[in-house]
Amino acid sequence: MVNLAIDLGAVGRHDEALPLIREAVAIFEANVGKQHAWTQTAMSNLATVLLGAGDAAGALAAHREVLPLQEATAKGEDRASIAQTWMGIADAESTLGHRSEALAAATTGVAIFEAALGKEHPATVEARTSLADKTRDAGTQYTPPTPVPRRK
């Protein structure tokens, strides 16, 4: 159900995706609770679908709801989910025109990705690219990271 909702959202069929992802969140909450990673993932996916549907305020609220749950439960590499939520907050804030808040959220997300996965992980590199975009949008100077050396 979650994957179908994500796929529908990705192709712009948000009217179909939103009821499915909301139902998935409700099912997970009822069966395993909000502290479970499945519920938290579904909540994060709801935020992503909301942003894609043009509801940046709703996406921001959904990300802010799941963030403390993730922070209370995620350990080690699982902390990447927290970083991804911070990046989602950055995207929602940026869409709402809140440039400094977007920059702060993206900076936090990158720092968590680096700590959880390392500086060379593809998710970290992608987050740094988003941070560069948020930095440019905020009108501040950004120094890009050193390129990751290719393995031979």
Could you explain how this protein is built, in words?
The chain is mainly alpha-helical and 152 residues long. The chain has two domains: 1-58; 74-140, no CATH class. It is built from seven helices and no strands. It has helices at 2-10, 14-32, 37-52, 56-73, 80-95, 99-117, 122-138. Helix 2 (14-32) packs antiparallel against helix 3. The protein is globular. The relative contact order is 0.10. The mean pLDDT is 90.
- What is the CA-CA span between the terminal residues? 41 Å
Which regions contain 5 or more consecutive residues with pLDDT less than 50? Answer: none
Secondary structure tally: strands: 0
Counting DSSP H or I runs of 4 or more residues, the number of helices is 7
The arrangement of helices and strands along the chain is HHHHHHH
Mean pLDDT: 90
Q: What radius of gyration results from the CA coordinates?
A: 16 Å
